[in-house]
Design goal:
Two copies of one chain form a homodimer. Chain A is α/β, with parallel strands linked by helices and about 325 residues long. Helix content of chain A is about 55%, strand content about 10%. The first copy, chain A, has a seven-stranded parallel sheet, sandwiched between helices.
Chain lengths: ~325, ~325
């Protein structure tokens, strides 16, 4: 007897797209079914997909670039999955557009699978769900899993940053290197794209980036990380497909570099660390929610309201700490 | 003997602005000094400030409106504090602008105190820090504390929503009511502002909002919440100061309503609930971080990498669960 979730995992691994979509919903939702699904997948997941993160400033053209990247990889016959992570601001309406309007060129192509994922709340949900989804897509046998962070935010950047290869997309208008540095993008980028390269200012953006990256390379050489990878900077005009072949070459080159240096295993371990941390955080949040819906909570809140107790001692009391 | 932090709390409560600024840093940073500071303040905090949240879509003119609101309240001689909460996107550079370039009209006015607060990471930090800061500003004797959420995000909206009076700012261009509903703004707004009312489309925005709010009012009448407050909709042109007096009148009217119906105590309790939850979440996050930096974590990560263990059972093992 296999459980329904285990059967779903079986079907998804053998290429059933409807089963795959359902399984992704299961692991995103969490709880016992997610637990079962991931246990069923653990023995299957070969970690064979190449995970590519795509991130960058809003309006840099990440979605278009991802579409072109997919087309380029498909031209070589490889199966590609796209996971679009969206922080779902209460003002933007979030990931609703995702699956339907995007990737229309690929919607009759069985070798392409696109999934949007909205972040859910503040607590571990996203950092748990994204690696889970990558794990499922990997087990489903895609050669490439592209994780595109639609929105901005530290969590999204962190997710893109734990791919095997992280592509950071900037535009000539945006690209002041200090800003990139502040955003932590210089640190996570394995390949940089200066998109909309038909606009002015490409050369100075490339030069700024080169300068900053050279500084970074010399500091990582100090830490003995050898042989160092100096991130290439690829000018593209994604809407016209210009430079996309160069981008794919750069991504493949970085992958070979990882394979040659053993970096691939380190990246995969980092993703597992993030995934486990997400699960632990979510467990914690549930524990806190249970405390906050208990009867003693109301009593303690009133004592704080009356000035009898300060918030920290109140919290200590709720978790049974000696203070 | 009073501790240095308790002395700081004393000084801040007696109007020492430098001490107040330091104390805010202490409570935002958290840890033992924050604990001490809040314990020292617990006996002082009279809960006498009126807490006003200001939130809304990006570009709606919240900052300008807040500035005008401050000027209007100052005209009546009341002391006003502004807490500007910014989610600090890695791409925006965050709250750095805050204190320095804003509120220039008020910078020689001892009756106005402005503080920017960046959100820090994903875990409880912001939901803990904002109520702490409000608590400190309250204890410092301001008549009004305006909590303006500079950015967007569920956490920021939630913070603005637990004010005594929440002002939701929209613009004619923005205001499709379904979007407002989706964002949860209709639910949290006690007073609505249609800013930039010199643009076209004000009437239809007001009409849309009125329709949605009337629906909301009839559903809350069903739940027996009486007497219901029907949120007023105030057109403003903040850059010219137009409508700001009406806004202040509406905020004062809502406050009287809360006082008359006992709603004020409920709002305050909700803030304390949020604050305690934030403290508990942060404790949890620290616990998780400790697990993730322990020796067994590395071992478990490698077993997951080798496909011997799935992530959920790995997490269960790390916290010592029987599975």
């Amino acid at each position: 007897m296999t459980s329904p979730v285990a059967s779903l995992a079986d079907a998804a691994s053998s290429g059933d797209r409807a089963a795959l979509a359902k399984l992704l919903t299961v692991v995103e939702t969490g709880g016992e079914p997610a637990r079962e699904a991931l246990a069923a997948l653990a023995v299957r997941a070969g970690d064979h997909a190449a995970i590519v993160g795509v991130t960058g400033a809003p309006g840099a053209g990440k979605s278009t670039l991802t579409d072109r990247l997919v087309a380029q990889l498909r031209a070589g016959g490889e199966r590609v999955a796209v996971l679009a992570v969206d922080p779902t601001s209460p003002f933007s309406g979030g990931a609703i557009l995702g699956d339907r309007v995007r990737m229309q060129d690929h919607d009759t192509d069985e070798g392409v699978f696109v999934r949007s994922m909205a972040s859910r709340g503040e607590l571990g949900g996203l950092s748990r769900a994204a690696p889970h989804a990558v794990r499922v897509l990997d087990a489903a046998g895609f050669a490439w899993v592209i994780v595109e962070t639609v929105g901005v935010g530290q969590v999204e950047v962190a997710i893109a940053g734990t791919a095997d290869t992280t592509v950071v997309v900037v535009t000539p208008g945006w690209g002041d290197a200090i800003q990139a540095s502040k955003a932590g993008l210089l640190e996570i980028g394995d390949v940089f794209v200066v998109n909309k390269a038909d606009r002015g200012g490409v050369e100075s953006t490339v030069r700024d980036l080169e300068g900053m990256l050279a500084l970074g390379a010399s500091s990582s050489a100090d830490t003995g990380e050898t042989p160092a990878w100096l991130p290439p900077i690829i000018p593209t005009v994604a809407v016209e497909g210009r430079g996309v072949e160069d981008l794919v070459d750069a991504v493949r080159a970085h992958r070979r570099h990882l394979e040659d240096t053993g970096g691939l295993a380190a990246r995969r371990e980092q993703r597992i660390r993030d995934e486990l941390r997400g699960i632990l955080l979510e467990r914690c949040a549930k524990h806190v929610d249970a405390i906050c819906s208990g009867i003693p909570f109301g009593t303690v809140v009133r004592r704080v309201a009356d000035g009898e107790l300060d918030p920290y001692n109140a919290a200590a009391e709720l978790v049974g700490d000696q203070q």
